[in-house]
Fold:
Amino acid sequence: MDAIKAPNSVEGPHAQHGDLSVVRGAAPRANHVVEGPHAQHGDLSVVRGAAPRANHVVEGPHAQHGDPGVVRGAAPRARMSASLQALTSAALAIPGMAQAADIETDYLYSRYEEGDLPAADSASGRASERYSIDSHLFRVAGVVGAGNVAADLTVESMSGASPWWVQPGADGRPVQVMSGASIEEERVDLQLSYAQPVGVIDAVAKLGYSDEDDYQAANVGFEAQYTPPGAPYTLSAGIGYSDDRIEPTEGGSAQYPDRIRSADKNTWTSYAGASWILGPQTVVQGVFGYTRHDGYLTDPYKRAYFVASAGTVPESRPDGRQIWTLSGRLRHYLPALSAALHLDYRFFRDDWKIESHTLELAWQQRIGEAWLLSPSVRWYSQSQAFFYAPYYADFRDDGFASSDYRLSPFGAVSARLDLKRSIARHWTVGAGIEVYEASGDYAIRSVDVENPGLVDYTSLQLRVGYRFE
Structure:
């Protein structure tokens, strides 16, 4: 089975959504709310694709939504005790990959492509292309003295149009206005970690920096794990801090005089959890996570439409946000089938009144001595932020306003298939594909007015790894 991880705070296709499980690759930036298409799973071995940056689609309350794991520096996944490692390796490892290695290298390519905005949902009456992201993730990890060092470098190129604001159509139904010109940006993210036993505690320190055209973020994190001698359980906890600065393109210019020139945000994330070995084939984990964002949490590129003035103003969100998550995971190995069942659930709640539920079911099937096939399905549902509306009749008393679909009520389903093969003990190759669809019909509660900007996407991943012994 793959390693049970510490809470993931993001979900959705971008971390800015709010869905935690969707982002499966590099950590999307925490300034948005993403949902799970990335969820930032983050486990290279599951190769969930590179995490699209949270400023875009992300679904779910994440990233800025409120998932601690999505936040850069947020809670890193917990390391396993020797006994837990033995069980998980027996359950999920590919032959030739379970042995320790002095140096491990991985390369992961991900192509994320959003479906076009339908003509019926577009204010222009024409279909519109949306975002695509090409991501390259390089990882090197190895033993240095008594500890382990790892470095993850992610390079992303992003292009396309993104939702700008929502306004009423001729029949009063909300329609989406897209950004006029195609956006092209690049992001470089470097994450470093060092793990070493400190007495009876397994400790990990993390440091990272991310830079893109209009956004910079620096993060630091620490986590610890303790397994009492002879005990069938492991306790873990972590804390992380991220300091972010945004300098929007053309902020304060003649074309966008009401767009901010720069702003700052900081994020604290923390988690505490426990893993239990229930038997020779079963492991469970429970994790509680807490995240606090302070500073500029608004998307400077989005606007909100007001019927009273027949015009738009920059969107505005509260300058603080608290997020609570509760996650449960089950890993059960079936020796007779050479397979493992994975069941994950996460509950998310924040003080913006968003609540979300994420349920994921996966099957890890070994085929022969070298192949691992991993199909999975995932369901997500969230309520809306207290200040969200597709568009507004008049201004709110508190001054908040946002028609961002990531803050709207909706649900999503996704299906994923991963295939990995080990070659001659040292090499590993793999590929994966994920198809994601968001709709008000998938939400727990009835959605009276669906946001026209909800996203569908397809993600393709290719991976190659080599282990030096």
Helices lie at 82-92. Residues 1-100 have pLDDT under 50 and may be disordered. The domain at 12-468 is CATH 2.40.160.40 (Porin).
